[in-house]
Amino acid sequence: MSQEIPEIIIGRLPLYLRALKRLKMTGQGYTSSKELGEVLNLSPAQIRKDLSQFGELGTRGQGYQIKFLINKLHQILNLERTHDMAIVGAGDVGEALAKYKNFIHCGFQVTTIFDNDEEKIGTKMSGIVVQNSAEMTRVIIEKEIEIALLTTPAKSAQEVADQLVKAGIKAILNYAPIELKVPEGVHVEHIDPAVHLQKLSYYLG
Q1: What DSSP state is assigned to residue 137?
Q2: Which residues pair with 132 in a beta bridge?
Q3: Residue 203 in domain
Q4: What global pTM score does this model have?
Q5: Are residues 114 and 134 in the same domain?
Q6: How do the pLDDT tens digits run along the chain, 205 residues long?
């Protein structure tokens, strides 16, 4: 998008998409900001404001045509094609991600797995051969992969992230318990279950 959209709005778009797909499965043709707000626990005004960032997507008196809005969100989120992904780190988390079946239904597929453990190199995870991390840069460039799932230990995560960036990776989903530093133009999402649990524990007192 040439228009600069706030990141917080981009973060809500997948939630809208998931809700719309569930409504479509019921055979429903149209929805409203009020109905979406009830499903997602957001105000109708917030939903209208978010979606208006991308043009007039609804019709006064009818609301939003579900099929059209799903297609539009696919376009906005670059989900009109399947994105290949690399997993770096073939430990427990990497293996779980390799087995996760819902990626493909959301427009993503794991095609490559890397590790530096000699016992894991050459073995298979969900039918994918684990390759030597020493080959990572070459393979990522050859396959034109732009998304990496980083599941290495924290002590090596930044070094690996630097290698991924040099190989052309544009997006990293980071499971390592460390904040990564990446150059402008490379986007990182951090997933640390311990952090989220610590947040939840605040409400248990």
Answers
A1: H
A2: 115
A3: no
A4: 0.88
A5: yes
A6: 445 889 999 999 999 999 999 999 999 999 999 999 999 999 999 999 999 999 899 888 889 999 999 999 999 999 999 999 999 999 999 999 999 999 999 999 999 999 999 999 999 999 999 999 999 999 999 999 999 999 999 999 999 999 999 999 999 999 999 999 999 999 999 999 999 999 999 999 7
